[in-house]
Amino acid sequence: xxxxxxxxxxxxxxxxxxxxxxxxxxxxxxxxxxxxxxxxxxxxxxxxxxxxxxxxxxxxxxxxxxxxxxxxxxxxxxxxxxxxxxxxxxxxxxxxxxxxxxxxxxxxxxxxxxxxxxxxxxxxxxxxxxxxxxxxxxxxxxxxxxxxxxxxxxxxxxxxxxxxxxxxxxxxxxxxxxxxxxxxxxxxxxxxxxxxxxxxxxxxxxxxxxxxxxxxxxxxxxxxxxxxxxxxxxxxxxxxxxxxxxxxxxxxxxxxxxxxxxxxxxxxxxxxxxxxxxxxxxxxxxxxxxxxxxxxxxxxxxxxxxxxxxxxxxxxxxxxxxxxxxxxxxxxxxxxxxxxxxxxxxxxxxxxxxxxxxxxxxxxxxxxxx
Amino acid sequence: xxxxxxxxxxxxxxxxxxxxxxxxxxxxxxxxxxxxxxxxxxxxxxxxxxxxxxxxxxxxxxxxxxxxxxxxxxxxxxxxxxxxxxxxxxxxxxxxxxxxxxxxxxxxxxxxxxxxxxxxxxxxxxxxxxxxxxxxxxxxxxxxxxxxxxxxxxxxxxxxxxxxxxxxxxxxxxxxxxxxxxxxxxxxxxxxxxxxxxxxxxxxxxxxxxxxxxxxxxxxxxxxxxxxxxxxxxxxxxxxxxxxxxxxxxxxxxxxxxxxxxxxxxxxxxxxxxxxxxxxxxxxxxxxxxxxxxxxxxxxxxxxxxxxxxxxxxxxxxxxxxxxxxxxxxxxxxxxxxxxxxxxxxxxxxxxxxxxxxxxxxxxxxxxxxxxxxxxxxxxxxxxxxxxxxxxxxxxxxxxxxxxxxxxxxxxxxxxxxxxxxxxxxxxxxxxxxxxxxxxxxxxxxxxxxxxxxxxxxxxxxxxxxxxxxxxxxxxxxxxxxxxxxxxxxxxxxxxxxxxxxxxxxxxxxxxxxxxxxxxxxx
Lengths: 370, 523
Ligand SMILES: Nc1ncnc2c1ncn2[C@@H]1O[C@H](COP(=O)(O)OP(=O)(O)OP(=O)(O)O)[C@@H](O)[C@H]1O
Ligand SMILES: [Mg+2]
Fold this sequence. Notes:
The structure holds two protein chains of two kinds. Chain A is an all-alpha fold. Helices cover 68% and strands 0% of the residues of chain A. In chain A, helix 2 crosses helix 15 and helix 5 crosses helix 11. Chain A is globular and about 60 Å long. Chain B folds into three domains: 153 residues, P-loop containing nucleotide triphosphate hydrolases (Rossmann fold), CATH 3.40.50; 179 residues, Rossmann fold (3-Layer(aba) Sandwich); 60 residues, no CATH class. Chain B has 18 helices and 21 strands. In chain B, a hairpin with a 4-residue loop joins strand 11 and strand 12. Magnesium ion binds next to helix 1 of chain B.
């Protein structure tokens, strides 16, 4: 952990403190991310061989499943949008030192609120306005869920991990109740969800595929915005201070509880938007599986990215491709599609365990290296 | 054990923390290591303790060359280090902390020498709690330390944490003990206990290295001293060598004491009325205290007698249980911490690693956190300039982008001081000169007194009676769960202060306390 090299030109345009440090560690950073990737790939290749499929064939099938046709490639990008939104939200909470597992519930609640708004406002208002209000309602629902989780943590002193998991259960329960109760389709209540929204409310997609450019653009903006806020604003620095040492941050005048709440609320807003977009762009209705576990997947993405905004996009794309590509495995090779889940899980575990791990976490670690 | 250090060098970027250092530490002797802040003392100890690997040079223990890759290696070779900032485990209990990080060999009763024979041989998987408890208590009794195995480490005073760490190292079979500023922030009694323990260990033939900025410690304990200056050995001396000679070796010149002119002015900066404050084990009452602008109030007492609680109550970090707190005439009772900050209260905690500074952030990032009117975006250039100003003003050996954990102990203290806002109504300091070398400590007091002349009232807790007597106008003594009324230093002697700390709070003042100077009267 030697400090920056002595001969670094002092006259170069100073970047913000956080940003500069992020880039100083770049080459080592990349190596430390790639090593677990290689290990995880080797592990899964071994697993494939054990199951009697050639790893090369599996890789080819995955590639083909993800990018074999324009339709599939569009689907990969469509899955990318909620991953980026949830991932951006998680960058805030991780920066504040919070292991926030409640994204999943925030996403679900966003979907729920968006559906509710659509049911209440359509067809009384023009379609464009209703869509915008649905997204806003989704964000609001997520904020509410995030703030509740945050309050449980900061006021009730519940570990943020359990608070988040508990709130996930509640959100899922409410959705099930609505889908099988008040909002059920006339006559049939099923896991297939509520009555589809009027097609006037559907987000427009690219040439008949699943990809909604508006959703992807929104997600990309969210990620860039997150990088800017975390790297270049006082708020981002305060979050980092709280994440590294809440006690010292408090003495230095940072209202730790308030900043944590803000991080929860922001992550809620972003995940809530993701949920609304899932309803408006992908499923066009509320269904129990509306999250498709994308919240948890985003958690893996951010952990693997070492909480670096710049790495979230490529890793999210990779995970999204794995998810979509694996859907074809059962047909082509007779393998379970959950193989991609195994790969993702192993990858993150190895990244977290890796001896090359970058120094992340709640700080307070030993500053010296022998 | 005899430790030979041969031509050891260690660089941190541009800094030569250790530069061609050679010295020999004999068994059965106490070797003092002196030098100004940033001279490289802690670095040398970290190298000996296996926390850092030297860039060049060799170590020999008892004549055998060793290569240390980790603290566990060093312990296995018999070297235990008591670091400047204790590296213990606050959430654990004393007993758990004693047990944790115990290498397998020691846990199974092999490798390290067991002080109690027959201890813990069956222990492999399970923590040998009972045996460890016995060993801990026996060791503590041997050195006259009082420990409660079930207390939380987080609740111990610094001195107690240090005793615990010392016992842990001994139980692991350390044959050489290296102590980095062990007497900063501990009470006189704890220091006595530590010194007698060290003398006993010396008789047992252990090699002991003592890093300290207090010449009185060095003169009381050391047989030989080595002085470091800017990473190099500046000189060695057999003790007794005389304080003047040591100071000259350390700083290259003699030092003058700062002048202490009265600074108290008119107007009340802090008013406490019938306040009650406390924590889980203390419940203190203070009938009345009015501190004038510019006045200096010293808080004396054994570490952990409530001085910190009073400071935190005045800072707004601890809610008073009863009574009123007013700063500059504004009643702040029950108000949140930010209101205290706005009213001009500044607080400097003693535990700089956990409360004062944020490990992982640089000096300039700390400066940005403290920015009075921050706006939305960080302005890197302004922040850099402000950080450079702070570094210059407090002569910190570091650069704006240096992470605070890379600063030497004394420089961390300066950084903490640099982060205090400029125009404070009330400055609350825990151990303000802890870890500073003599020259820096005096210099810091000059800065503090300059603030007092500008009207800032100052409350400081210190375990050093000299410091309390020299700089305070009045002193509050904390002892046995009580606080004395403020006593003017004019009515105090070192001896009486010592007795008050020992518990004789009620002894009447020798003369009826009606001093003439307005600064010293109790309004
Ligand atoms: N991990 C590190 N990274 C960068 N620089 C360091 C690191 N540790 C120490 N230094 C630098 O090395 C020099 C020597 O530091 P060291 O901690 O050994 O001083 P010291 O003699 O113990 O001082 P003090 O009396 O203030 O504790 C200082 O200039 C310090 O800034
Ligand atoms: Mg030091």
